[in-house]
Design a protein that fits this description.
The protein has 183 residues and is mostly helical. It has five helices and no strands. The longest helix has 27 residues. The radius of gyration is 20 Å and the shape is elongated. 37% of the residues are buried.
Length: 183
C-alpha cells in the first residue's frame, strides 16, 4: 500500500496591509480632489489632467476590486496598481515640468494651495511610495522595476498621444484651464 498523497493546504487569504489601505485612501483622495477641481471649482481638465485622472481611476478600480474579491491575494494588488500609479506620476511630472519652464500656466488647486499639477504631483508621489513599500515588503524588487518600466511606457504613450506633445493651449479667454502663459 502506498502512502496517501498529501492534501494541499488551503491558502488563507491575507488581509490587505496598512500600506495598501493607505494607498486606497490616498488614491480616493486624489480622485476626489481631481473631480472637485472640475465639478466643485468649475475648472476644465486639460488633456494631461485627464490622463492623470484616468490613471488614478484605474488604481482605485484595481484596489477596490481586490479588497472585495477575497480570492485575490492582497500582496498582488499593489503590483497590479503600481503601473497605473507610476503612469499618473510620470504624466504629472511632465505636466509640472511644462508649468515650471513657463510653457503652461495652470490654475490654482484645491484651497488655493499650489497649482493643480503641483497638488497632483504631491499626492501621486505619496501613492506610488505606498505601493512600492507594500511590494518591497514582499521582496519584489524586480516586480517593482518592471511596473516602473510599464508605467513609464503608459505615460509616454499618453503624453505622445496629446499631439503635439505640448498640447495647443491657446485659450486667451479661458482662465479656468491650463493654457500657454500670457506674454
Amino acid at each position: 500500500m502506498s502512502a496517501p498523497e498529501p492534501q494541499p493546504t488551503p491558502q488563507i487569504p491575507q488581509e490587505p496591509s496598512i500600506w495598501l489601505w493607505g494607498a486606497m485612501f490616498v488614491s480616493l483622495i486624489a480622485l476626489a480632489g481631481s473631480l472637485y477641481l472640475s465639478l466643485g471649482m468649475g475648472l476644465k481638465a486639460c488633456p494631461l489632467c485627464l490622463y492623470q485622472r484616468t490613471f488614478v481611476m484605474g488604481v482605485v478600480g484595481v484596489l477596490a476590486v481586490g479588497f472585495f474579491v477575497k480570492e485575490l491575494q492582497p500582496r498582488a494588488l499593489s503590483l497590479l496598481a503600481l503601473p497605473l500609479a507610476v503612469g499618473a506620476l510620470a504624466v504629472v511630472a511632465w505636466h509640472e515640468y511644462l508649468e515650471q519652464t513657463g510653457k503652461l500656466e495652470c490654475p490654482r488647486g484645491v484651497l488655493g494651495v499650489g497649482t493643480a499639477p503641483q497638488q497632483s504631483l504631491a499626492i501621486l508621489a505619496l501613492l506610488v511610495a505606498l505601493l512600492v513599500i507594500d511590494q518591497l515588503r514582499h521582496q519584489r524588487l524586480m516586480g517593482v522595476l518592471a511596473t516602473f518600466v510599464l508605467g513609464g511606457l503608459l505615460a509616454f504613450s499618453a503624453i505622445k498621444s496629446a499631439i503635439p506633445p505640448i498640447p495647443n493651449y491657446d485659450l486667451t479667454v479661458d482662465e479656468d484651464m491650463c493654457r500657454k502663459p500670457k506674454n
